[in-house]
Amino acid sequence: MSDEARASVLRALQAALAAEHAAVYGYGVVGGRVGAQRLAEARAAYDAHRSGRDALTREVRDLGGEPVAASAAYALPFAVSDPATAVRLAAELEDRVADVYSDLVRASSGRRRGAAAGALREAAVRAVRWRGESVAFPGLAERGAPQGQAGGSASPTASATP
Question: At what angle do helices 3-33 and 83-107 cross, to 10 degrees?
Fold first, then answer.
């Protein structure tokens, strides 16, 4: 792998790791507000994101990088005060994770690309479960946004907002 390709993969891995850190934090909020009927689903998603975070940490180290650290706290995109807003946050978290895994699929090849595609698929399925409907192109916000909506990336920013 060329130095340029390695750097591109490392950037995409770091972005996915930052998104996983944010999702782990966000699911802590979701679990506190979601309600008993969906608590098991929130716990399963939390565990999946912890597992993804740990795998990405290893991948970054394997490429010689220093894994991006989790923030102590994250700014939520909106107030989460009841089960309905907790469900909305869970769907948003999954959309953001799918977005960054889409970038990792694009930057990778071989086994890493397959794993990233699997993670994108899992995030998209969880988003559908939370939202109750799907988007046309999971992980590609600019193509999945309905007409009239901004098509920018919903990926965590440098502040890694979940």
Answer: 170
* Segment 119-147, tens digit of pLDDT: 999 999 999 999 988 776 666 655 444 43
Q: Is 113 helix (H, G, I), strand (E, B) or coil?
A: helix
Q: Which residues of 4-39 are buried (b: 16+ CB within 10 A; e: fewer)?
A: eeeebbbebbbbbbbbbbbbbbbbebbbebbeeebe
pTM over 0.90, yes/no? no
Q: Alpha carbon 21 to chain centroid distance?
A: 9
pLDDT digits 0-9 by tens, 28-57: 999 999 999 999 999 999 999 999 999 999
* Cβ–Cβ under 8 Å, residues 68 and 158: no
The mean pLDDT of 76-95, rounded to a whole number, is 97
